[in-house]
Design goal:
The strands form four sheets. Strands 3, 4, 5, 8, 9, 16 and 17 form a seven-stranded mixed sheet that branches. A six-stranded parallel sheet has the order 12-11-10-13-14-15, sandwiched between helices. Strands 1-2 form a two-stranded antiparallel ribbon. The chain is built from eleven helices and 17 strands. The chain has two domains: 164 residues, Quinone Oxidoreductase, Chain A, domain 1 (Alpha-Beta Complex); 137 residues, 3-Layer(aba) Sandwich (Rossmann fold), CATH 3.40.50. Helix 11 links the parallel strand 16 and strand 17. It is globular. By secondary structure, the protein is α/β, with parallel strands linked by helices.
């Protein structure tokens, strides 16, 4: 099988952080010997993409940059050293585009922590283009029966929250609180938690977000725009506080507050990355309650395969809306305003 690959393609590019995002023609990249070339059909838009464009994280982006790291499409070319993919296979472009595979972190399955990690849509041009390259070792294998638009958000949002739930190390029947529950990550976290046998309380704001969270399986919902004492409300809803908290919210106050309402021996997992934020909690309270505060980064190859399996079996789905690739600036605007339910997915043909 072979594909006719054009010389140029449509892409969204920015040349300086916070500068204009230009929808234009650029050359189609050539895969290196260890890379595949993916014809990207759909790409989810993650909050990380917004940070990459703004440049407000302490890790510099490459410039100019094509963002995006939730790309789903078809392998149309591959380097001479690639044996794990064939032309015509479905493949996913993840946040972790490549790692050295030889350091102490890669050797123990912590490839995202590799000091030489190459990141899609950050240090490596990502999926906001019609053709993108990915290291064959880290690219995700996607079943041919899979809806590529629906699976795109799983490649980052799904894998990230699934890994966070594994990091929380909770038992079936225990309570988990999802802070930022109606967003792209939170809406998937609710479903993964339910599929893992956990009881879910979601925190977010507004009736529309409450309806979404409840429809996805949250037993309780706390509206932060209406609730005066969130700590008390969460603890009452969970009979003493959740056993674990997954913080996908980008509110510094919400993250710190989770250390207050989590029950003794509970785990607070940090996932969302608001720029410059800190976790603030009383040392006395943290010690007496014996809580654990853990950071959870994106998953490795095994986490990715497991997260995709949940999707393939119909146990999770991402609430999403499809818009054209050219509408990326508008998507970022809505994201900054907190007006997006679930995930926005870009159709690269538009």
């Amino acid at each position: 099988m072979s594909y006719e690959i054009p010389q140029t393609q449509k892409a969204c590019v920015f040349y300086e952080n916070g500068g204009p995002i230009t929808y234009k023609d650029i050359p189609v990249p050539k895969p290196k010997p260890t890379e595949i070339l993916v014809k990207v059909l759909y790409s989810g838009v993650c909050h990380t993409d917004l940070h990459a464009w703004k440049g407000d994280w302490p890790l510099a982006t490459k410039l100019p940059l094509v963002g995006g790291h939730e790309g789903a499409g078809v392998v149309v070319a591959k380097g001479e050293n690639v044996t794990s993919f064939e032309i015509g296979d479905y493949a996913g472009i993840k946040w972790l585009n490549g790692s050295c595979m030889g350091c102490e972190f890669c050797e123990q399955g912590a490839e995202p922590n590799c000091p030489k990690a190459d990141l899609s849509g950050y240090t490596h041009d990502g999926s906001f283009q019609q053709y993108a390259t990915a290291d064959a070792i880290q690219a995700a294998h996607i079943s041919k029966e899979t809806d590529l638009a629906g699976v795109a958000p799983i490649l980052c949002a799904g894998v990230t929250v699934y890994k966070a739930l594994k990091t929380a190390d909770l038992r079936a029947g225990e309570w988990v609180c999802i802070s930022g529950a109606a967003g792209g990550l939170g809406s998937l976290a609710i479903q993964y938690a339910k599929a893992m046998g956990l009881r879910v309380v979601g925190i977010d704001g507004g009736d529309e977000k409450k309806e979404l969270c409840k429809s996805l399986g949250a037993e309780a919902f706390i509206d932060f725009t209406k609730t005066k004492d969130i700590v008390k409300a969460v603890q009452e809803a969970t009979n003493g506080g959740p056993h674990g908290v997954i913080n996908v919210s980008v509110s510094e106050a919400a993250i710190s507050q989770s250390c207050e309402y989590v029950r003794p021996l509970g785990k607070v997992v940090l996932v969302g990355l608001p720029a410059g934020a800190q976790v603030k909690t009383g040392v006395f309270e943290a010690v007496v309650k014996s809580i654990e505060i853990k950071g959870s980064y994106v998953g490795n190859r095994k986490d990715t395969a497991e997260a995709l399996d949940f999707y393939t079996r119909g146990l999770v789905k991402s609430p999403f809306k499809i818009v054209g690739l050219s509408e990326l600036p508008k998507v970022f605007e809505l994201m900054e305003q907190g007006k997006i339910l679930g995930r926005m997915v870009l159709d690269t043909s538009k």
